[in-house]
Amino acid sequence: MENIIKTTHLKKLYTTEEVETTALDDINIEIKKGEFVAIMGPSGCGKSTLLNIIGLLDNPDDGQYHFLNEEVAKYSERQRSQLRKGNIGFVFQSFNLIDELTCYENVELPLLYLKLPADERKKKVVEVLTRMNIMHRKDHFPQQLSGGQQQRVAIARAIVAKPAVILADEPTGNLDSANGEEVMRLLEELNNEGTTIVMVTHSPHDANYAHRIINLFDGKVVTENIREQFHV
Amino acid sequence: MFTNYVKIAWRNLWRNKEFSFINIIGLTLGIGGAVLILLWIQYERSFDQFHEKKEQLFEVWNQADFNGEISSWGWTPKPLGPVLGADQAEVAAFSRYQTPYDMLLKYQVKGINQQTVVIDPEFFSMFDFPLIMGEKDQVFAKPESLVLTESAVKRLFGDENPIGKEVVLENQTSLIVTGVLADFPSNTKFQFDAAIPWALYKQLGFEDEFWGNNSVITYIELHPEVKVETAAANIRDVTQKHSSEQVSLILHPLTKAHLYDHYDNGVLAEGKIKMIRLFFWIAILIILIACINFMNLSTARSEKRAKEIGIRKISGAGRGRLILQFIGESMVTTVIASFLALLIVSLLIPHFNNLMGTSIYLPFGEPIFWIIYIPFVILIGIIAGSYPALFLSSLVPARILKGKVSSPKSAFSLRKVLVVMQFTFAAILIAATLVVKSQIDFAQSRNAGYDRDQLIYLMMSDQLRDKYEPFRAEVLSSGAATSLTRTMSPISETWSNTWGMSWEGKDPDVTITIDRYSTDADLSKTLGLNIIEGRDIDIYKYATDSNAVLLNEAALKLMDFENPLGQLIKDNNKEWKVVGIVEDFVVNSPFHQVKPLVIFGPKAWFNVFHLKLSPSNSVAENLAKVEQIFDKYSADFPFDYTFVDQDYANKFQSEQRVSALTLWFSGLAIFISCLGLFGLAAFMAEQRLKEISIRKVLGASSANLIVLLTSDFIKLVAISLLIGIPIAWYVMNIWLENFNYRIELGVGIFGLVALITLLIALLTVSSQALKAAWSNPIKALKGD
Fold it and tell me: Which part of the chain is the ABC3 transporter permease C-terminal domain (chain B) (predicted)?
């Protein structure tokens, strides 16, 4: 099975004036196309740092990172931005919708940056909003929605450009259990359709949706549990 | 994508009303102020630029070396024009210009005084003043011709067609109206009601061939192909060739006449252009201050915008796109402000014109206005948006989406630098306002040396000239005036000077200009002058006083007489005997030292008479009585009087305009600065709300907190003062060099500047600090 993400001896340091902290140390992971991987570990273990690097929001200080078979560890912000576009979708704990844009406009945003024509954008946005069962609130602003609805909009935005990978950073962290459950089911559904999902979570329950769990501790991979065999 | 930008810009504006209001108002006032100044500058620059032959038109000026210093002046002898026209091949045309003077014009029974000039016929072809009636080359075909302006025609003829009608000049000479000039625009130095030809002047016997009598302005038009330098070199020595006068001629371009009106030691000096340049910089400062507000407030809000920027970045926005977006947002604000600015400017223009004596207008209908205004607005939008755009687009998404945005240290420092810049400008402008105001107050409170109260003057009409003595006696016996005196010119100015005066002990190699004045009697009584030695001239008491003379202190000092009384002074081929010394009094500029003045007895000439109205009656009663007597002796001339105190007040007009302009635009700049500081203080207070709350819970008093919140700003303002005050001191000293009767810049005035600036900043910031200090700490802490 083809690797979509592969890191080799990945290292990330945070340096302040006085101390140097190793956030990630010798991370070697491989994520295959269509996999659903959960990254777990205590606060400060480097989960989010790893997700940021995987998501091309940040560069490692050492090691290699292959994304879609491309070595991207030394990419500039501009190159990373180019590669991110259309390939990676993000879902956050705090939804991160733009308050000044309506649901519809929030979802449309990645397509605007992909410079798709208006009618095509409209088609895709309507399709994904309908799928997320939020079409009836398309003209509302984020603050007018419940947390669960907001997260559905955020997922809609993450998948509208049909990215190869969705990176979810504690997607249920701000939701009650019912809404959380719904979000997880949506992610599972997307995964079943072939989207690779990498999710950072604290919740063992959520992690159960994944095929594989990578446990981090103090910036290192300590264990990898295969929950169920992943088949193509 | 563009609609998305506009949409979000608009929603951002709408959602953050306070912030948007401050930004829009700041930019509106900034743009409005700058537009007003730029329109005014354009107006001042447009003086006499509308003549088609403007590049070929020159005033001929005299230049002479007086004791090692080169003096330059625009008055020239009457024969100069015709000589230049006849002898100099490069001169295409010339016209002499006898400056406007009230002359009586009478049509049928109606007589009015009109400002009348004497010109040569070529005047109409040299300058582009359109004739509504009459032909340029025909109007002065005969000496007995009269050209009137539209307004003068209205006054004299009403709606009647004036062409061919007879008008009597000064009750003596019949003239025929041959032309009507369109009223002059205000942006020309030529302003008169009526013009008569030089040929008439000559016929009436006023022409003289004396090269030493500099009494007219001479204009010439050069042939288009002639180089100015060549022409200047060729005419340089014309006066010396025709007379014994040791003066050279120079060409003063008409296009520069308004802004460059004098020469310093032979070099063309900056006149009004200096002030224009100063206000140009003020306009730039005002715009910059408004842009700085926008930058500061936008970057201060970066935390609020950070999330959006992060999302846009992970959604695929490149930095270039984001920069475009933020520039677009500042553009939306700027465009709104630019429309509001035009609205405000159009409301202010009438007041501005009133204050400044100008006639500026917003040229909406002229494409050139929009060709300049639209890029101007775009440029401001780019300047205002540039720094926020660069700063906000540089935020790193990985950090901001984790809520780890704090303004980078360097950005905060830059914000401090910008605040320091704003308040440096503000301090300089406050200092300028105070210095200009103090200087004017200083000159205004100067003892003029004479009493302006209830003092009027009138022009001496020809009728009155012959019957002055009985007129004088009758006025005095009527009780309307306590005294009268005839003089050469109004007390507010001298009309004649000379460097030909001599006296015993005078160094023959030294050339000194001395002002001339004259009186028949009661000069000191009428004007309230102080005679410090000897007595006043009084022809009615002392028959020999016709060639008596008074000296002012400055003249006495110059002539250096040990016993001045009885000394003889030679002037105009006559001998004059000193009978008294009068204390110095201000005749010309109240901003300059009193110059040597010699006051001659009745053998000189009189153009004016002054009356001291009686304090025992009302002014109206006095004037009615005087008018009645005046009409008896000078029936054909209107009773046009002027109050000397008004004349005196007019001397301050130009400086008062500078003062008003400085005051208004400084106020504007300071207001915009404060608006920015207010917004910044609000954001800072909001940002530190948690810190304030913790401090409050731990026992800090409101006073502690206010000090905490304001001290940062006060430090910045203090730094601004340290930078601004030396600059202001330097600049204002240069300005004060224009006056030799002037204030000295002391510590006091700058102490006041510091106090005002600090107070303004403190008041601006403290309201926000109070709000924060009084807020309920629970609210801010609960969120954690």
Answer: 282-395, 665-777
CB contact under 8 A, A100 and B8: yes
CA distance B525 to B538: 11
- Based on the fold, state whether residues B519 and B644 are members of the same structural domain: yes
Q: Collapse the DSSP code of B584 into the 3-class scheme (helix H, G, I; strand E, B; otherwise coil) and give the result.
A: coil
* Claim to verify: residue B504 and residue B622 sit in the same structural domain: yes
Residues B18 and B86 in one domain: no
Is A55 touching B (CB cutoff 8 A)? yes
pLDDT in tens, A53-87: 998 888 899 999 999 888 998 888 778 888 888 88
DSSP B449-467: SS--TTEEEEE--HHHHHT
The secondary structure of chain B in percent helix, strand, coil, rounded to multiples of 5, reads 50, 20, 30
The answer to whether residues B374 and B465 belong to one domain is no
Are A57 and B7 a contacting pair at CB < 8 A?
Answer: no
pLDDT tens by residue, B437-491: 888 888 888 888 888 889 999 988 888 888 899 999 999 999 999 999 999 999 9
Q: Select the residue from B12, B303, B311, B312 to test the A interface by mutation, using most A Cβ atoms within 10 A.
A: B311
Assess whether B471 and B425 both reside in one domain. Answer: no
Please report which confidence band the pLDDT of residue B412 belongs to, taking 50, 70 and 90 as the band edges: low
Looking at residue B613, its amino acid is L
Q: What is the count of structural domains for chain B?
A: 3
Residues B578 and B671 in one domain: no
- Answer for the pair B479, B612: CB distance below 8 angstroms, yes or no: no
CB B598 within 8 A of CB B549: yes
* Burial of residue B509 (number of CB atoms within 10 Å: 0-12, 13-18, 19+): exposed
H helices of B267-366, in order, are: 272-300, 302-314, 319-356
Chain B residue with Cα closest to A78: B318
Domain coverage including residue B483: 455-649
Q: Which residues of B are less than 8 Å from A98 in CB distance?
A: 8, 307-308, 311-312
ipTM over cut 0.90:
no
